[in-house]
Structures are given as structure tokens and as C-alpha cells.
Amino acid sequence: xxxxxxxxKNKFQLSHEALSQLHQVSMWYSEEHQSNxxxxxxxxREECFTNFSRNANSISNLxxxxxxxxxxxxxYLGISVIAEESRCKRTGYSIDVLIAIxxxxxxxxxxxxxxxxxxxxxxxxxxxxxxxxxxE
Length: 136
Fold this sequence. Notes:
The protein is an alpha+beta fold and 136 residues long. It has 4 helices and 7 strands, in the order E-E-H-H-H-E-E-E-E-E-H. The strands form 3 sheets. A 3-stranded antiparallel sheet has the order 3-4-5, covered by helices on one side.
């Protein structure tokens, strides 16, 4: 049996990886067709979103350094850290740091070396940047 699905209670179930990929494909489809419609039935779409949102993340030393730098900035700049490792409610993606700049929320992604192939972002990083950048 492929890692994309497994046998459970005598029926096939999609794996964690497959549900996450379906969620990303669904977001891509909606973006490409400039539609709020999904290619997935509602129950499957909700299962994919929930599954995708459960992806575990680890905080890198680089991320800790960036957060500490934001926190050390003088208050007159109007920049404050709201949250680390928060979840985007629309996409399910993890946001490394959410900051406020004069009461406007800004998502900050901290992409270290594992997000790149040579000097170019890898595929997962490009997709996340694209899907997050479309949010307003």
C-alpha cells in the first residue's frame, strides 16, 4: 500500500501527507480560477484543512534571533511582536512571526537554508509564499 493511503476498518483512508497535499491543491485551484469554490466536497475540504493545520513546526535559532531583534526595537518605531508560530485561519499555514506595525498586522516568514536549493527557494517555499501573499 502506498504512503498516500492506508487501510483502516476495511476501507482506504488518505494519509496525512495526501490530505495536506489535497488542501494545497484545493487552495491553488481556487487561486488559479479566482474563485471561492473548492474542487473538494465540503467534508473532505474540512478534513484536509484540519489535517494541514496540525503540521508540527520547529523554531530555528534564526527565527529566535529575528524575534529577539523585533522585541528589542525601540517602542517609538511602532513595531511589536503579536505571536510566534501562529496559524493563518484562511490557509492553515504556520506563520513564523506575526508583528504589528502601527496597529497593522504583518506576517513575517523566516526562511533559513533548508528553504533553498542553491540560491533559489525550494518548491514548498515558493508555494507557501505565493499562497500567503494573496491574503490581505
